[in-house]
Design brief:
Chain A is built from nine helices and no strands. Chain A is an all-alpha fold. The chains are: A mainly alpha, B mainly alpha.
Chain lengths: 194, 128
């Protein structure tokens, strides 16, 4: 069956609620993954995904096609929603339910598995320390498994610029991880010594 | 070894890693380049292992879709109501303006006729 294009659905969504529902179904997974990897937990990812689509719905009647894919528009909204969320949450320190559950379960795990999970957590935490556009690049590359040309379209850059940004991102991430792992060894060494 | 070349090699390696190779031919690299890029290749492998797609719960997707559809229906209905009200308002204003202009025209004509009648009477009246 022929799938209706994004542009046709956007035009129809101004008059037909069902058309916006189809756009939502097409992109809810991408936006959920983006918000999940930006925040690190499912509750906030759900909340921010909902906010992103509500905002998109409010603005759909003013949407102007500038040649970029509709997903670029949604990612831009999600980026702003996540930025607001970080600003609002910066005043209070929160341990999410996901983190709490993970921490409780990890205490029961065998040491090797626990270490593997800990390394993974460290890596994802280091990713979340990167500037938002670098995080977006890694999410589009590894989670959405997009080609460089597709990432370039979504992020409004050239393919060459994306490759270069990817290289700089991995270099920055490697340095951040070295720093974090060195700090962890220092703490472990001090604890063992005490 | 240019920055562009290194970025190209790293991008090609990662594309192969995620199963989306853009070039069939592998890009040739020297031992020095490989040595410099090895930690980044390893990091790309760790990212590929750690950044897997996650699925939102089916209940969340279903509920949000229903809420968005309800919201969209209300929004479209409100827009239609506002448009209809604006149309009725504009029509009423237009009608009022038409009536006012007709009344104005009648008043003008009557005033002109009266003025002319007065002028005629003044000319016909005996002088002295």
């Amino acid at each position: 069956m022929h799938e209706e294009s994004d542009w046709a659905l956007i035009a129809r969504a101004k008059q037909d609620p069902e058309a916006f529902g189809l756009l939502y179904e097409r992109y809810v997974g991408c936006i959920y993954n983006y918000t999940y990897y930006r925040t690190g937990n499912h509750q906030d990812a759900e909340d921010l995904t909902a906010r992103t689509f509500y905002r998109a719905l409010r603005r759909i009647s003013h949407y102007v096609d500038r040649g970029a894919p509709f997903s670029a528009y949604l990612y831009r909204i999600a980026h702003n929603v996540v930025a607001n969320w970080y600003r609002d949450n910066s005043r209070r320190q929160i341990i999410s339910l996901d983190e709490l559950v993970t921490w409780v379960f990890r205490r029961e795990e065998p040491a090797s598995l626990a270490e593997e999970h800990e390394n993974q957590d460290l890596l994802l935490q280091a990713v979340r320390q990167l500037p938002p556009e670098r995080q977006q690049l890694l999410i589009l590359k590894f989670v959405e498994q997009m080609r460089n040309a597709e990432i370039a379209e979504v992020m409004g850059r050239t393919e060459g610029a994306i490759k270069s940004l990817y290289h700089r991102t991995l270099e920055a991430l490697r340095q951040e991880l070295t720093h974090v792992e060195y700090g962890r060894e220092e703490i472990t060494g001090r604890t063992n010594h005490d | 070894m240019t920055e562009e070349h290194v970025a190209g090699v790293l991008a090609a390696y990662t594309d192969g890693l995620i199963g989306k190779p853009e070039t069939v031919q592998p890009i040739p690299i020297t031992d020095e380049e490989h040595g410099r890029l090895a930690p980044l290749f390893q990091l790309a492998g760790r990212l590929q292992q750690s950044m897997r797609p996650v699925q939102p719960s089916a209940a969340f997707v279903r509920n949000l879709r229903r809420e968005l559809a309800d919201n969209a229906r209300r929004r479209i209905a409100l827009t239609k109501r506002l448009r209809r009200s604006a149309l009725i308002g504009a029509a009423a204003l237009g009608s009022l303006l038409s009536i006012a202009s007709v009344v104005g025209a009648i008043v003008f004509v009557v005033a002109r006729l009266r003025a002319r009648a007065q002028e005629t009477r003044a000319i016909q009246a005996p002088t002295g």
